[in-house]
Specification:
Layout (H helix, E strand, L loop, with lengths): L1 H13 L19 E3 H11 L1 H21 L5 E10 L18 E14 L3 H68 L4 H36 L13 E3 L11 H11 L1 H21 L5 E11 L10 E11 L7 H67 L5 H36 L14
Helix pairs in contact: 2-4, 3-4, 4-5, 4-7, 4-9, 6-8, 7-8, 8-9
């Protein structure tokens, strides 16, 4: 009966303790045929691989924290042993008495509880908690970087779409000039040279349109990748339509306010604060190894008396306190304390460098935004002047006052001024997004339909 009890206990120890979980495979959403910035931000929030990888690192760290906190908790376990040995190795205790038993078994339940460790356990748990906080800040940093890329790729796709429109308008104007030059040549009021020149200008404009369309396809592909999406079967970038424009131009924030915000809110700087505090806990943990380690223990067990096969099983409880104190460890603890202090100093220097780089990052992006805004404002006046010059040149060419070369030059100036203007708006919006990231914000956070983790 006791042997059956032992086997049941041993079976409970070796089976059914844990159940493996099945790992699901990540699935990618289908890229919508019509997408705006809000949709792009929300799709990326849920499906961007870098964001989800960062979240999983946080889950991993939370599991490590749970494991670390268990060091201070009570432990209850069961144990069991069964063995059989050769009869030649069995002998009665003391050389006489009852015959020995060739089988031996024991089983029981034990309990232990750490009582004192000189602060080692507390420092270990606190260090793990601070590492979790640091990793949480790094997840925010990864989210900010991913959202920045989504905005940049979306704005690049918008820019290439606008460039396609400008190139198509330019080709339409050149086609109109070719038609006008051909009509004048047929009527005998124009030269064949004007027709040839118009044909060359039209032919030279087509490669720019081809390149613009290819750049648009590349930009949409990059946007799709940043969202973690896939195309519907049979679709490609040419089947995706972007909703949005560059009409909204936000104001440029004040630099001083941005610098203060960056020093307080940047997640990478907050991560350094937590890591510095965690490194300080590691120093205390290493030094605490010199303190005594005191544990409470208790158990209750059953054991077969192997020296008397006819005896009843032995059973009962034990309880007590166990203490350990290191007396001589050949400098191991001193070396570990020195290592921990050095790691703390390294984290402090890295934090110092990160703060300097953060200020530089904010200033560089702010200056880029100011430059783009100034170019944008200057190009608005140029567009007005170039449009008026093109209108006057067209009227003068129709009455024969100027050559077609002058008309084409005015058209080129007008197209270039519009391209410079839309490029400046794009650069300004991009600089503002990167400025948000440099300040510690999550670009597009106000567009999220889900709460920020």
């Amino acid at each position: 009966m006791m042997r059956c009890t032992f086997i049941l206990i041993l079976f409970a120890l070796t089976s059914g303790v844990s159940k493996a979980s099945e790992n699901g495979t990540a699935s990618n959403p289908v890229m919508p045929a019509e997408i705006d910035l809000r949709s792009a931000v929300n799709i990326a929030y849920l499906n961007n691989p870098l964001i989800n990888e960062a979240r999983e690192r946080l889950v991993e760290q939370e599991g490590l924290l749970t494991s670390t906190e268990s060091l201070r908790m009570p432990r209850i376990g069961a144990y069991g042993l069964y063995q059989q040995e050769d009869s030649d190795r069995s002998a009665s205790f003391g050389g006489g008495g009852a015959p020995p038993d060739e089988e031996y078994w024991r089983a029981g339940i034990d309990f232990s509880q750490p009582l004192f460790a000189g602060g080692l356990l507390n420092a270990t748990v606190q260090s793990s908690r601070l590492e979790s906080e640091a990793l949480s800040a790094e997840v925010q940093s990864a989210l900010s970087r991913a959202m920045t890329r989504v905005h940049l790729f979306f704005f690049n796709a918008l820019l290439t779409r606008e460039v396609i429109g400008l190139q198509e308008e330019s080709i339409a104007l050149l086609q109109e000039q070719l038609t006008l030059a051909s009509n004048r040549y047929v009527a005998g009021t124009g030269a064949r040279f004007d027709v040839l020149q118009a044909e060359v200008r039209l032919a030279n404009a087509r490669p720019a349109l081809i390149r613009a369309r290819n750049e648009n396809r590349i930009a949409i592909d990059r946007l799709r990748t940043s969202l973690g999406a896939v195309y519907a079967e049979g679709d490609g970038p040419e089947n995706i339509n972007l909703s949005g424009d560059f009409n909204h131009v936000p104001d440029l924030p004040q630099l001083d306010a941005l610098l203060r915000e960056a020093m307080q809110e940047r997640p990478d700087l907050r991560a350094f604060v937590f890591r510095r505090e965690a490194a300080g806990q590691d120093v205390r943990r290493a030094a605490a190894q010199r303190s005594p380690d005191v544990d409470l223990f208790a158990n209750y067990g059953w054991e077969h008396d192997r020296h008397d096969e006819d005896a009843d099983p032995l059973q009962g409880w034990q309880a007590g306190i166990q203490a350990r104190l290191p007396i001589w460890e050949s400098g191991r603890i001193r070396g570990e304390v020195a290592q921990a202090k050095s790691r703390l100093a390294q984290v402090e220097w890295r934090e110092n460098s990160a703060r300097l780089n953060a200020e530089l990052d904010v200033r560089n992006n702010w200056n880029r935004a100011r430059e783009a805004r100034e170019i944008m404002e200057a190009s608005e006046l140029v567009i007005t002047q170039a449009e008026e010059a093109m209108r006057l040149a067209d009227n003068r060419y129709r009455v024969g006052a100027i050559t077609q070369l002058d008309v084409l030059a005015s058209q080129l100036d007008f197209t270039k001024s519009r391209l410079d203007h839309i490029t400046a708006i794009h650069d300004y919006r991009v600089a503002l997004v990167e400025l948000d990231q440099a300040t510690g914000r999550i670009p597009g956070e106000v567009l999220l339909e889900q709460p920020n983790p």
